[in-house]
Amino acid sequence: MSQFNALDEGLVVAGFGRHYLVETPEGRRLICHPRGKKSDCVVGDRVRWMPTNSAATEGVIEHVETRRNLLFRQDDWKTKAFASNLDQILVMVASVPTFSESQLTRALIAAEQAHITAYIVLNKTDLPEIEAARARLAPYIAMGYHVIQVALKADRQAAVEMLQARLAGKATLVLGPSGAGKSTLINLMAPSANAPVGEISKALQSGRHTTTHTQLHWLDEQRQTALLDSPGFQEFGLRQVQANQLAGLMPDLAAHTADCKFYNCTHQHEPACGVRAAVDRGDVSASRYRIYGELWRELSSTKW
Description:
28% of the residues lie in helices and 24% in strands.
């Protein structure tokens, strides 16, 4: 029996620096901080905690239970965790502004490595630029990704009905660049989303962290369906991925790696490369192969 089993259970539903909002099994929320100087909790963690005052309005996190998974990004200098114990992620893009295919690919690779199901949400289907966006996503549909098409502002009811079925009973993280509609989706599906932010901001007497950390919102009274809002990002480092693992995390390339003559093929210059042959045939899009090359060179460079 673990030494922590006698402690109270909790779920981390928001994080603000070294302060965390922890929810008890009864639904009560309180501010906790981790024991010691190191802060390794993330939203979605199941934790064991103990009160630090007689009213049990604040506490200290003593232990983080084993995670099913962890979605994070890593650059040369730091690692940034999004959330743990996820069932799926929604990667949001829109017809306007034009989305970065490189950033989309990076998010999907991180999900593949963490063994988390990923869906692409294409927003603003009511705009004339939608056909160009659909064309850019065609390779992703071909390789097996499901693209959910919505107009979050123009057709709210249809979007809610479409997303409710996809989200029911799951913990879902929403990722997306500025302007894709991530905040619109969160507010549409969880109208009370700002409540936890207000609670902890008031308690900490500061609102300056409220848009920079992941937060969990329940979509049902039974607390079975969770939607997690993530901070925006300009860069999505993948230093956690080794260069020789990269092709295996890109489904369209992975489908052809067995056809390579050399087992350690980098798919860059070797003869009889199955991936490059697939690009020549049009089975792998030129844009995807270009992104692979950029990532391969990035991940092959010296890590300082």
